[in-house]
Design brief:
The complex is a heterotrimer of chains A (383), B (352) and C (317). By secondary structure, chain A is of the alpha/beta class. Chain A contains 14 helices and five strands. Classes of the chains: A alpha/beta (383), B alpha/beta (352), C alpha/beta (317).
């Protein structure tokens, strides 16, 4: 027992001292959580610092009211004002250039007869209002969508003022498949980041303690002492668990302090998934160690496996947009199931797969990897 | 010249045999192009909306027909729709009882729900108008004024990844390969042979630049073949920004190697710093999404301008003078720093 | 002298040896690394396994350290027959492996504390740090140690459990002469403390200077064993005369001294019984041949000669 504890402590210590492990095991999860949480938290609250160029050709009051509505929607406006008595064409060109060359996210052209047309009423045709934007560019399309929405709303408000809307349609929101609390991006992200951290720990840490320690001769020296392979594994396993627990606590604390996240991580169901995730991460580490057989290959293999596992596991982004061809990969990915199951246990949504599959897929990976590792891995090149 | 060719060939062999080098400089960028392609490369797909019609169903259906971006699917009762939303068979749900519209949002879809809620608001207003029998007073008309090649966010990602591939090839040519050769004394051994120092440096540098260009080219080919991107490449600009990224990367690697004290730490530092730079340069995540502070940092980083330059080279954005100047400056810095590294590493009295 | 050797009679006939090995075998594929060797180690002595690189010394010692499983053979350790060396035996063994490999990101003292946790009994780490002269490096990370300091740490770890039997695999290979001298002193000190030391080496001076008992090993077999004095004594009252000799002149020398001359590269070697008479014959032969006999050396036989006589090769070839 003493040997296991000493090994665990030694392992946890060294991860804090080596540059690579210090960064990837300790700093990276916090950094990723802070950055993604901060960035998409802002996106969620609609604070995007979008700049819109406005060419207001309208001479009536509604043009100004529209601009006020745009400012209220959080857009930064830059007005191009036509000098008196000149034609509007050069201004439209300038607005177009501003957007095309990336100095503004979008441009709105308020047409000349804007107030007259809208106040006149009784038109059978809608008044077209042009929005310049750059298709495919995230900021620009967001700005254009926001402009369009404000415009539509503006028009509807006019209809209501004119008494044309006789029966207003009420809008109720109902959230399904979760607990009582509302879920923000930071809540959604936190289990994802923790799973990422666990998998990095397993995928990169296990080949280190099995293959690298063997190659550098450290293992030989350990086994020349009365230390069995089983106790060595238990020791570094406990060390990995120590690091994982500390990581979890650190990410949880950051979520709590920076983003006000309150997640019941200590719930039995949540703890069960956390344990399952830890075991799966270790098993995959052993799978890599068994397949690679030397530490340089293992590093390459771990990198190669890590990326699709994380991107196709729905850790950071929802996977609903994925093409059908990739669905089997998503379904076979243990991270998909761990993320779904854990988020369900935390009251963050309903899994798209049945619960038994959420449990079975990671278990299959554990058993499969464990069997392969047991068959192929030897601690020393020859015993 | 024979010395150079021999070094080049040997480096090619080493590169192809080293799984880690091969992975970092060639395979990972390709994997990213594929992954991002599968996630964003197919353009917009219609939003699936599940509908339960309790009363006045024809009105809602005719409203929904106004929006080609929505793909409606009818459910017999609220309970079935709730299940469908929760299990993500549809993106969101609408229950219409003739007076009130209830929108069902899945609990965990935090990123998409604001967009779905906005759709519900548009549908509600359209319902009001339909009843009043008036057309919408204003009709927004979106006009794309950017380049024709730009259709989706993926069109911006691909050139960014190409710039990263070249940047990384440059950084690891020095901070990885040459630094390792110096640490292991291989550089000293080569100096003890009659092969000129420049031939060694050029052999390593040009090989890695070639690898960078090959990876970037493969990125482009994959994106075009698998995801139907329609770039209009400008060969001169591609070459310029590719060289700027590669040479500047080599200079960056040289600077790191000069700073690093321990064997191998230049490569570690390089991979972390390059990833951080890429993150802050709007290559993985749209630049506008970054908070103002990070954006200010990103704008002074070469990766941001190199990505913009690459985008201009592929006809996705207008070419900007700032990208050109930054590229030129980075390339010059790279040449100078690499030259300085070469002088230091090849100085006769320098120790391994 | 080849083939399985029985425990030597006389002085070293062990009543109860601390370690006894019979017919030990280990093959790697077609290569017989250890080909049926037998020997015994008496408590309180320094036992050396001497042989060139690749003789099977390390495989033998790794089997005895419990790092490898033998294909066949008997091991009797601390008076107990064991199929393989397990934790119970390891607890009483001290081990110095060929390379001093420890976790680079642990501190020196932490390495000792870690290993201390593996053993049921151990000496205080401070005492060992003092003993190997690493006290001021106790808080240094292993990766910052020099090669010699790492060796000393390895030695401290080997002594950590106050072992009864200490395996030292090539302990002085790659050390500078001063560090080698230091290691030798420590070895002799350990023997004075009553420890048993099992040494593998390819330095014949080392085996000769330190050992009570030497086994000469080559190609997985033990060729000869005995105390250094006995082994050398097998040549009888012999003296060696060495001198520079162009290989072309060797046949002439062999013709003049049948059965006594040997060629060793650019050197000629003469094994003589009657030094005065044979030296005079050599000098007159050299004068006839017009040879200068540069670097002439007259010396007593050593273990190197024993090995050369047994194998026709030198130890360090």
């Amino acid at each position: 027992m003493r040997a296991i504890g000493a090994l665990a402590l030694a392992f946890a210590r060294t991860t804090l001292r080596e540059g690579n492990t210090l960064f990837w095991f300790w700093l990276f999860p916090l950094l990723l959580f802070g950055l993604l949480g901060g960035i998409f938290g802002r996106v969620e609250r609609g604070r995007l610092d979008l700049t819109v160029v406005v060419v207001n050709l309208d001479r009536g009051p509604l043009g100004w009211e529209l601009l006020r509505a745009l400012e209220e929607a959080g857009l930064a406006l830059r007005s191009l004002v036509p000098p008196l008595g000149t034609s509007a064409a050069p201004l439209l060109d300038e607005a177009r250039r501003e957007v095309a060359e990336g100095r503004a996210h979008a441009a709105l052209i308020v047409p000349e007869a804007f107030s007259d047309r809208l106040l006149g009423g009784g038109e059978k045709e809608s008044l077209p209002v042009e929005i310049f934007y750059r298709r495919g560019e995230a900021g620009s399309s967001t700005a254009a969508s926001l402009l369009a929405e404000v415009l539509e709303e503006f028009g509807c408000a006019l209809l209501a003022q004119a008494g044309l809307v006789r029966a207003p349609v009420g809008l109720g929101v109902q959230r399904v498949g979760g607990g009582a609390q509302t879920v923000g991006y930071a809540e959604f992200l936190l289990p994802g980041v923790l799973l990422m951290a666990l998998f990095v720990l397993g995928l990169f840490g296990v080949p280190d303690v099995v293959l690298l320690a063997r190659e550098t001769g450290v293992l030989r020296r350990y086994f020349a002492a009365p230390l069995s392979g089983g106790r060595y594994l238990l020791g570094v396993g406990l060390g990995l668990a120590l690091v994982a627990a500390a990581q979890t606590a650190a990410v949880w604390a950051l979520g709590r302090m920076a983003f006000g996240v309150r997640l019941p991580l200590g719930r039995p169901a949540s703890l069960a998934f956390l344990l399952l995730a830890f075991a799966t991460a270790l098993a995959l580490g052993f799978l890599i160690a068994a397949l690679a057989r030397n530490s340089a290959n293992a590093l390459a293999l771990a990198n190669l496996l890590n990326l699709p596992l994380q991107f196709l596991g729905g850790l950071y982004f929802p996977l609903t947009g994925l093409p059908a061809a990739l669905r089997p990969l998503v379904a076979a990915n243990p991270l998909t199931h761990l993320a779904e199951g854990w988020r369900m246990a935390l009251g963050l949504g309903t899994p798209t797969f049945p619960l038994w599959l959420n449990l079975l897929v990671p278990l299959l990976w554990i058993v499969g990897s464990g069997a392969l590792a047991a068959a192929r891995l030897t601690f020393l090149e020859d015993r | 010249m024979r010395g150079f060719a021999a070094v080049f060939l040997a480096q090619l062999r080493i590169f192809l045999r080293n799984p880690v080098d091969l992975l970092v400089t060639a395979v990972l960028p390709l994997a990213l192009v594929l992954l991002f392609g599968f996630i964003w490369g197919r353009g917009e797909r219609p939003t699936r909306v599940g509908v339960v019609l309790l009363a006045d169903g024809e009105l809602l259906q005719s409203v929904l027909a106004e929006f080609p971006e929505l793909a409606p699917q009818t459910y017999p009762e609220a309970w079935a729709l709730e299940q469908a939303v929760a299990r993500r068979a549809v993106d969101f749900g609408l229950i219409w009882d003739g007076r009130e519209l209830t929108v069902l949002l899945a609990h965990g879809r935090v990123q998409e729900n604001p967009g779905f809620a906005a759709w519900a608001r548009r549908v509600a207003r359209a319902l009001e108008r339909r009843r009043a029998g008036v057309p919408p007073p204003v009709r927004p008309v979106k006009v794309h004024v950017g380049k024709l090649s730009a259709a989706t966010w993926y069109d911006h990602i691909v050139p960014g990844l190409m710039a990263v591939a070249l940047l990384q090839a440059g950084v690891f040519a020095v901070a990885g390969r040459l630094a390792a050769m110096r640490e292991r004394g291989i550089l000293r051994r080569l100096q003890a042979s009659p092969v000129p120092g420049w031939a060694v440096l050029a052999g390593v540098g040009l090989l890695r630049l070639g690898v960078g260009f090959a990876t970037a080219g493969l990125n482009l080919a994959l994106a075009q073949a698998l995801f139907g991107t329609a770039f209009s490449p400008h060969v001169g600009r591609l070459l310029f920004y590719g060289l700027a990224a590669g040479l500047g990367g080599m200079g960056f690697g040289a600077a790191l190697t000069a700073l690093a004290r321990r064997p191998g730490s230049a490569a570690t530092l390089g991979s972390v710093l390059v990833q951080a730079m890429v993150f802050l340069s709007g290559i993985y995540i749209p630049f506008e999404f970054l908070p103002p502070g990070l954006r200010a940092v990103g704008q002074i980083l070469p990766a941001y301008h190199l990505a913009q330059g690459m985008r201009a080279a592929l006809g996705v954005v207008e070419p900007a003078p700032s990208a050109f100047l930054a590229g030129l400056g980075f390339a010059l810095f790279g040449i100078l720093a690499f030259w300085g590294f070469g002088r230091r590493a090849l100085r006769p009295e320098s120790r391994a | 002298m080849s083939g399985p050797a029985t425990p030597a009679p006389g002085l070293h006939s062990p009543v109860a040896p601390i370690l006894r090995v019979r017919n030990l075998r280990k093959s790697y594929g077609p290569v017989r690394a250890v080909d049926g060797i037998s020997f015994a180690v008496e408590a309180g002595t320094v036992f050396s396994l001497l042989g060139p690189n690749g003789a099977g010394k390390t495989t033998t010692v790794e089997i005895l350290e419990g790092l490898r499983v033998p294909d066949a053979g008997e091991i009797e350790l601390f008076g107990e027959r064991v199929a393989r060396v397990g934790p119970a035996q390891k607890a009483r063994l001290g081990v110095l492996l060929q390379e001093a490999a420890f976790e680079p990101y642990l501190r020196v003292r932490e390495v000792l504390v870690l290993f201390a946790a593996f053993y049921p009994r151990h000496r205080p780490p401070e005492e060992l740090l003092d003993r190997v002269g690493l006290r001021e490096k106790a808080r240094a990370l292993v990766r910052t140690l020099s090669g010699g300091q790492k060796r000393r740490l390895a030695l401290a770890v080997a002594l950590l459990n106050d072992p009864e039997l200490l395996f030292l695999d090539e302990p002085t290979t790659g050390l500078d002469p001063q560090a080698r001298r230091h290691t030798w002193d420590l070895l002799l000190e350990l023997r004075r403390e009553g420890k048993t030391v099992f040494l593998t080496t390819h330095y014949m001076e080392e085996a000769e200077a330190l050992s009570d008992w030497v086994c000469i090993m080559d190609h997985g077999r033990i060729l000869a064993e005995g105390s250094p004095r006995d082994l050398v004594g097998r040549f009888g009252p012999t003296t060696f005369v060495e001198f520079d000799l162009p290989p072309a002149s060797f046949p002439a020398l062999a013709a003049r001294f049948p059965g006594q001359a040997r060629q060793d590269g650019e050197r000629g070697l003469l094994q003589v019984q009657d030094l005065a008479r044979d030296l005079a014959r050599l000098l007159s032969w050299a004068e006839e041949e017009g040879l200068a006999l540069r670097n002439l050396l007259v010396r007593q036989p050593n273990l190197e000669d024993v090995f050369l006589a047994l194998t026709g090769r030198r130890l360090r070839e």
